[in-house]
Design goal:
Strand 2 and strand 3 form a beta hairpin. Strands 2-3-1-4 form a four-stranded antiparallel sheet. The protein has helices at about 15-30, 35-50, 70-80, 110-120; strands at about 55-65, 85-95, 100-110, 125-135. The protein has about 140 residues and is α+β, with helices and mostly antiparallel strands.
Amino acid sequence: MSGNNLRRFGVSMEESLLENFDILIEKKGYTNRSEAVRDLVRESLLRNKWEENDNVVAGCILLFYDHHQRNLVGEMTDIQHDFHDVILATTHFHLDHQNCLEMIVVKGKTQSLRTLRDKLASLKGVKYCKLSVSPVSES
């Protein structure tokens, strides 16, 4: 990034929020607040871009669920078969006797991936479901 393109602006926030932000900055190894703010803005803009457009993206759906929940595994499998065209791979982990973690690697149009995420997240017994993606190409 060229220094000629930088613009300064002020940000006001509660002292406790700023203190927590400074702790995060230190943990993540940033040398100053500006670098951290730039990364947060980039991430927000990227997320907004893929959420608002129907671009092709690739990423992962992360699921934590109770595998003892009646019919849950079958329902998850049925949904995944309905979306076979956007699912590249799945990996399943047994966290303990009751809980499982599943990672579903996906690639496709954002609307389809959001629909898949929402269908999985709404199932009884799913404790956590998050879709994380990145654009496949700059467009």
